[in-house]
Amino acid sequence: MAPAERREGMHYLESLPRRWVTVYIPLLVFLFVLLFPFYWMVITSFKSNAELLSNGSNPFWVIEPTLDHFRKLFYGTSYPKWMWNTIIVSVTATFVSLAASVFAAYAIERLRFKGSRQVGLAIFLAYLVPPSILFIPLAMMVFQIGIFDTRWALILTYPTFLIPFCTWLLMGYFRSIPFELEECALIDGATRWQILIKIILPLAVPGLISAGIFAFTLSWNEFLYALTFISASENKTVPVGVITELVEGDVYHWGALMAGALVGSLPVAVMYSFFVEYYVAGMTGAVKE
Amino acid sequence: MASVELRQVRKSFGSTPVVHGVDVSIADGEFVVLVGPSGCGKSTLLRMIAGLEEITSGEIRIGDRVVNDVAPKQRDIAMVFQNYALYPHMKVIDNMAFSMKLAGRSQEEIHARVDKAAKILGLTDYLDRYPRQLSGGQRQRVAMGRAIVRDPQVFLFDEPLSNLDAKLRVQMRTEIKELHQRLKTTSVYVTHDQIEAMTMADKIVVMNSGRVEQIGSPLDLYDQPANLFVAGFIGSPAMNFLPGKLVTKWGGRGVQIAPDCVLPAPANSESDGSDVVIGVRPEHFDIGASGVKAQVIVVEPTGADTQVYCRIAGHSVTAVSRERHTFRPGDTIDLNPAEGKSYLFNPASGARIA
To answer: What is the predicted ipTM?
Structure first.
C-alpha cells in the first residue's frame, strides 16, 4: 500500500491487486460482453451442420472446422454480387453526402447568412424523422423517378439520413477551427473557395474521416430502405440478401448466415482499425496549433 | 508605404454603437498605438482598417484611396493576430509564402523574399518546421515574417504580444520597434498595455468606450493629459487623484482635501470654493520634505525604487521614491507634490483645468 500522503488522485491505482479490481477485471468483463457475439459468429460459420445441430458437441468450440458454409455462400447464392452492390452504394452515398455536408456545414457555420441557425436546426430535425416513416413517401418518389430496384434507389435515398448526420458532425468540427485563420487568409488574398480548399479542409481531415466512417458504416448496415426499394436478388445489399435468401420459411441456414455476417463485417472492421486515431480526434474535435 | 486617414468612422453592431465617430490621421511611416481598456473599440477600429469589419459610416483612406468598400486583400495591408493565426498544417516556409503563392508570384521571387524575411527575424533554421514545433516567441516571429514578406503599405498588429510571458514580451517589444525602424512601414498597433504603448509608439491614440480621448506622442500624453481618463490610464503606478475645493493660500492656489490638509495647486483662473480633483503622479511626490501628513500603509521596495502606499485624509495615495527609506507601516510621513508637477481636473466633465 502506498504511504498516506501519496494516496491522492490516481495513485490508488498503483498497487497491483487494486489495479486488477478497478481496471483490468471491469475491462475484461466489458470486452467479453462485446466480443462474445463476434466469437459465436466466427465459430458457427466454421461448424458443419451436423455439429451445429447435435446436442453432444461442445457449443463453444469447433471440433471439425469446415468451409462448407462459405462455399455455399459464394457459389450457391449471389453473395459476391451483394457485396459488390453494398460497396458501390456505400462508397458513392458516403462521398455524395460528405461533399454536400461540407458545403452545408461551412455555409451554416461560417457564412453567417440570414437564417443560418434555422437552416441548421431544420437539417437536424430532418435527421429526427424515423426512416420507418420516411420510407413510405420515399418509396413513392423512387417509383415515380423510375429507379425502383436499381442501385440508384439506395444511392439517392441514403443521403437523406447521411447528410444531416455528417453536416452536424462537421459543423461542430468547423466551429473548432479558429476564425482568425480564415481572416488571416482573407487578408493574405484568398477567396472563400481557396479558404475552404486550402485552410479549412486540410484542418478538418480528422472530422472528414470520422464523418466518412460513420456515413460508410450507416450505409453499409442499412436495412429498411434496401429491403423496400430492391426486389431482384442480384441488386440486393449484404444485410438484406443474407436475411432474405438464407432464411427460407422457418429454416435458418445458420452456418451460411453467420458466414455472411462475418464476411460482411470485415471491411468495416478493417477500415475502423486504419482510421481509429483520426476517428477519436474527429470526435473530440480539436485543431492543434 | 502609405498614410492612413480615419474620418468620422462609426461602427454599430445592430443598434449598439461601439465606435462613435473617430478621427485619426496616421502619417506615412509612423508607428501608431491604439490603447485603451478592453471593450473600448480599439480592436474593432483596427479590424475596420483591415476590412474585416464593415464601416457603419465615415471614411477610411489608405494612401489616397478610400477603402470603405475595398476587400481586405486589395487593401495591401498585413495583419498580425493575437493568437498568431499561423496555418497549423503548413510549414513555416509555406505559412510565409502563402500570400505570394495565392498572388501567383514566381518561385524565385517567393524564395528570395522568404529568405530575406527569415534572415531579418532569425527564422532561417526553422523554415521546415510546423508551427506546433515552435515556441511562443518563434511563432510570433513567423506571424511577423508572414506580414513582412508581403511588403505591404500598412502593418496592423492586434495585441500581438499578449499571449507571451512577461520576459518575452519585453524582448519582442524591442524587436518590433527595431523592425519598424528598419522597414519604416506605417504601423497601427493595438494593445491594452499602456507600457507597450508608451515604449513603442511615435503617436498614441487613447480610446475609451468608442471615443478617442487624446492623441499625442507618449511624453505629451504623460506630461499634458487632456482629462482624468488619460491621466489615470497613462503611467504606472497610476496617477493619484484627490477631490477637494480650491482655496487661495501662501500667496498661491491650493486644494483643500480635508479641513487641515491643503495641497499646493498649479496656477489657474477658477474661483475659490469650486470643486476640483488634483492629480499627482506617484513619482512626483517628494517624501520627507514638509508637506501634508500621510500615514504609511504598505512599503514595497523593488530595488531600484520604493513604492509607498499611504493614506491622506482617508484617500489612498501611492508615492514612488528612488531613495531608500527607513519608515515602516503605521508611521506618519510628509508628502509634497513637486512644483509644477500636479494637475487640476474638473470632477464633472473630467477635463483638465491646469
So the answer is: 0.83
